[in-house]
Specification:
This protein is about 35% helix and about 5% strand. By secondary structure, the chain is an alpha/beta fold. It has a 4-stranded mixed sheet, with helices on both faces. Helix 1 crosses helix 3. The structure holds thiamine diphosphate and magnesium ion (MG).
């Protein structure tokens, strides 16, 4: 694990800067949507996820879906920070000859599915979850959603199905920044409402301050430790981001508990997070993963 909290914060700072540079260069985009999620995505990519930075198609890679696809510049900045593309590539954002479009598309090899039509990412993540189980490959899928996006009914259709099928290898992280495209969201910074909704669908949900690294990291730890056994709510105050993981069932905990885990997350004033599978016990070696690493 590369990643001390200071290192994760520094990565997030660089992600913010590069996102701003890219959207400025392109003259369009959603820079604020990138900024609110930078701390969360730093932890997800540089602490939680495991993948081979040299092989986007390694079946054992953990998967990431940017369901709030309009924050694509942040995702491109992540791949630059991971050493997968150059920083200067990120500045080609939205050019006709660039594979780095304003929303993620599979023209970029690390993107499995085009996103940007809000509401669809969690459904695709659930498909990944099924695939992992059918192929017996223990990868996890992380889906980052917007809070405004959660007004889309498809999010809850996916949440219900994930719970029914105990998709314990699926994490949903909701960035509760209180804003949709042109105004306040219905629930604004009331992250507990997000967590309660996910819980109502059978998820293990936590809330965190999405800019507090101790809380974010702890939420993932809690999820790994308790996600399948004792659903617990982490009380927090208001949050800007909410991560919800569907959870991992490596140890079969979720299966036994009969529920899917979820995580919820945080914000910019105080916020909250949720769930976590366990980082603790080392994951069994995955096929073809010998070169996998957390990029530094
Ligand atoms: C199905 C659909 N409807 C509308 C839009 C237009 N749109 C783009 S960004 C956005 C606001 C998204 O807000 P939120 O999910 O909270 O993300 P944030 O930018 O706050 O992170 C909207 C409505 C879209 N991309 N897809
Ligand atoms: Mg929002």
């Amino acid at each position: 694990m590369t990643t001390s909290i200071d290192a994760l914060k520094e990565k997030a700072r660089r992600l913010r800067i590069l996102s701003m540079k890219a959207t400025t260069e392109a003259g369009s985009g959603h820079p604020s949507s990138c900024l609110s999620a930078a701390d969360l995505i730093s932890v997800i990519f540089f602490h939680e996820m495991q993948f081979d930075p040299k092989d986007p198609h390694n079946p054992a890679n953990d998967r990431f879906i940017l369901s709030k696809g309009h924050a694509a510049p942040l995702l491109w900045a992540v791949y630059a920070e991971a050493g997968i593309i150059d920083e200067k590539d990120v500045l080609t954002l939205r050019r006709l000859d660039s594979i780095l479009e304003g929303h993620p598309t599979p023209r970029m090899p690390w993107v499995d599915v085009a996103t940007g039509s809000l509401g669809q990412g969690l459904s695709v993540g659930l498909g990944n979850s099924f695939a992992a189980k059918l192929d017996n490959i223990p990868f996890n899928t992380y889906v980052l959603l917007g809070d405004g996006e959660c007004a889309e009914g498809q999010v809850w259709e996916a949440a219900a199905l994930a719970s029914y099928y105990k998709a314990s290898n699926l994490y949903a992280i909701v960035d509760v920044n209180g804003l949709g495209q042109s105004g306040r969201t219905m629930d604004q910074f009331d992250v507990n409402r997000f967590a309660d909704k996910f819980r109502a669908f059978g998820w293990f949900a936590q809330t965190v301050d999405g800019h507090n690294y101790d809380e974010i990291l702890n939420a993932f730890d809690v999820f790994r430790r308790d996600g399948g056994t004792q659903p617990r709510a982490r009380r927090a105050t208001r949050g800007r981001h909410l991560p919800f993981p569907g959870g991992s069932d490596r140890e079969g905990l979720l299966r036994r508990a009969g529920r899917a885990p979820a995580v919820g997350l945080a914000d910019g004033s105080p916020s909250r997070i949720s769930p976590a599978r366990s980082r603790a016990p080392a994951r069994p070696a995955r096929p073809g993963r010998s070169r996998r690493s957390r990029p530094g």
